[in-house]
Batch of 3 targets.
Target 1
Amino acid sequence: MSRETTASLLLIACLVVAPAVRADVSVRFEHPENYKDLQLSAGSTPKIQADLMNQFSKYFKQLGELYLPKGDKLEIVVWNIDMAGGFEPWRSPNLIWTRILSDLYPPRYDLQYRWTDAAGRVKAEQRELVTDLNYRAMVGFTEFSPQDALRYDKATLKRWFRSRFAGEAGQPLLGK
C-alpha cells in the first residue's frame, strides 16, 4: 500500500472516530414561553428569542468542548432564564428598549443536568439555580466583546460550568 493511501485511510479513520471521543452536550429548553426573561429589549420578537436560545445552546456546547472529559455526555434542561439586567421604562419612555445592568437584576438560570461518562455511568445529576449576585464585578465578562449582549450571562455560565464539570471524576474545580 502506498504512503498516500495509508495516510488517506488514517485520516478517514480519525474523522470517523473523532466525533465519538468528543464530549457531547445536548440542551433542551422546557417551556420557553414561560421564561421570566428571554429578551434583549422590551420589543424582542419570537425570532430574536429563538436566536437567543440558539446562542445559549451553542455556548453550552462550546463549554463542553473546553471543560468536559472526552467521551463524556452532558444533558442540560433549561427550565427558566432570567438574563442579566432588566428594563426600567419608568426612567424614560425611550428606555423601554434598553436593558439596564444593575445589582437588582443578576442573571439567573434554572438548570437541570445529567452528566455521564463514556461508559454511561452517571457522574452527577442535579437541578440548580445558577446565579451570581456580583456578576458585574466578577472577572470574566471582559473576555467577551463589549458588543456581545450576553457577555455577563456567558461569564456567569462559564464560571458555573467550569466549577461543576472541569474537575477530575466529577470533582468540581472551585476557585479556578
Target 2
Amino acid sequence: MKKVLLTFFSLTLIMVLAACGNNNAANNTAGSAATTAPTEAADPTAAPAADPVTLVVGASPVPHAEILKAIAPLLEAEGVKLEIKEFSDYILPNTQLAEKQLDANFFQHKPYLDDQNAKNGTDLVSVTAVHVEPFGAYSKKIKSIDELKEGAKVAIPNDATNGGRALILLAKNGLIKLKDDTNISSTKADITENPKNLDIIELDAAMLPRQLDEVDLALINTNFALDAKLSPTKDALFIEGGDSPYANLLVARPDNKDSDAIQKLAKALNSPEAKEFIEKQYEGSIVPAF
C-alpha cells in the first residue's frame, strides 16, 4: 500500500512540475513576442520622410502663374512645394533671380533673356522651353489694317527684343519696311519705308492694353493681352504664325539649374498634364513648345 501511495505522489509531482514548465514556456514565449513586436513594426533602417523643398518662382500673372498653379499638385507629389511670386513687369523677375531672392522665373523668351544678360552682366540660363505666345496687333478703333489712316498712332513695347519683334510683325503685314525683317534687335531707326507715316510710339509692354483707347493700333505680348481679357485668336487684327521662335522659358541660375527640385519643375512644366491645361485653358492663344 505504501508503495502504491508513493507511486501516486510521484506521478502527481511530475505532472505538476510539467504543467509549471509549460506555463513558464508559454509566458516566456508571450513575453518574447511582446518584446519583439514593436521592433518588427518600426524598421530601424527606414529613412525618415524628407521635408518638402520649397521653390520660389517669379512669373507673370497670365498665363505663367496660372500654368504653375496647375502643375503644383504634380510637384507636391514629388516633394516640391511652389511659392509663386507674381510680377507685372519684365525687369524685377530677372533682378531678383540674379540676387537669389527667387529660385527661378517663368515669363520670358530667349532673345529677351540674352539681351538682359548682356545689358546687366548676368548669366541667367534657360532650363526648358514651355510655350509660345504668338504676338498680336489689337485695336478698338479699326477692324482691319486697311482702315489704318495716314499718321495713325501705333504703340509697340519699349524693350529691345519685343520692340524689334513688333516692328518685324508690322513689316510682315506690309505696314513698314525694315533693313532686315528678321533682325530681332531692329529699332525705329531701321525703318526704311513707312508709306502711311505711322506715328510709332514706344511704351512699357504692360501698359499697352490700357492704351488701346488712346492709339489706333497696339502690338501686345499675349500674356498682357490675356490679362486684359483680349483673345489673341479672336481679337487680334493680325498675329504671329505658329512658327514663332519666341518660346517662353523656365529660367534659373548656373548654380541651381541642375538641382533636383528645378529639374522636377522643368519636368512638370513639360508634362502631359501641363500640355492638356495649356490647350484647354487658352484655346490656341498659347501653344505648347514641347
Target 3
Amino acid sequence: MTVVVATENFELYHGVVNELRDRGVTFTTVEPGDPLPDRATVLIRAEDDERFEADADERDGTDAPNVETVVADPENPRRAVDEALARLRGGEGRTIVGIDPGTRPGIAVLSGDVVVAAFHVPLADVAETVRREVADAVDPVVRIGDGARLQGAQLVRELEEVTVELVDETGTTPYLGTGARGMGDVLAAVNIARLEGERVEGREIEPTAGELQVIQNKSRERADDNREIDEELARRVAAGDLTLDEAMDEHRDGDDG
C-alpha cells in the first residue's frame, strides 16, 4: 500500500512531502497524468490537478477504481496527510477529538481510528486548539472525560459550536513505564476519544467546598501579598465567568476601594 503525491502545485508538493517524511510514511511521487504505481492506494493532489487525471485516463486507458483521491489545500498539507493515512488504514475518516481535562489537558485528534495529532497545553489554550483541529472537518465530535468536573464543564461551555460528548473516563489513564513520564494525559485522551459518550450542550456544576478552596489556594499562591480571593469570586471562577487572574484583580480593586 502506497501513498502517491501527484501535483504541479509547488507549495502543496513540498508541504505534503515534508509531512509524510516527518511521519515516516512510505510514499512515491509521479507527474500529474502519469500512470500510478501498482501498489498505489491513496493519491494526493491539488484541486487544479484534476484535469491531469482525466488526461491520463484518455491517454493510456488507466482507471484505478481502488485508488482513493485526497484533494489537498496547499495552505493545510497536514489535513491532507491526516485524511490520506486514515484512508490508507481503512478508517472512516471522521475527526474525533479526545480531551483528558485538567489544569493542563491532554488532547488527541483522531481521523477514523488513526491518531493524527496530540497536544498537551494549558487549559486556556484548549478551546482554540480544538477549533483549529476541527476546522473544515465533516461532522467532528469532541469527547471530554468526566473526571475533572470544573475544567470539563468550562470546556463544554467554550466548545458550544461543536458536537460534544461527555465520556466516563474510568480506566482511561494507562500505566506508564520508565521513560513515559508526562505522556499519561495524552494517552488518556486517546482512550477517551475512542469511547462513545453522552452528548451534552452545556454542563452546570455546583462546585464543592473543596473545589472552591483549591481555587482560593491557587489565588493565594499567585498573590504577592499572600492573600486569597473570597468564596464568591472563587465560585465565579468555577463557573467560568472569571479567570483566576480577573478574580484576583477584582479582589484587589475591592480591597483598595
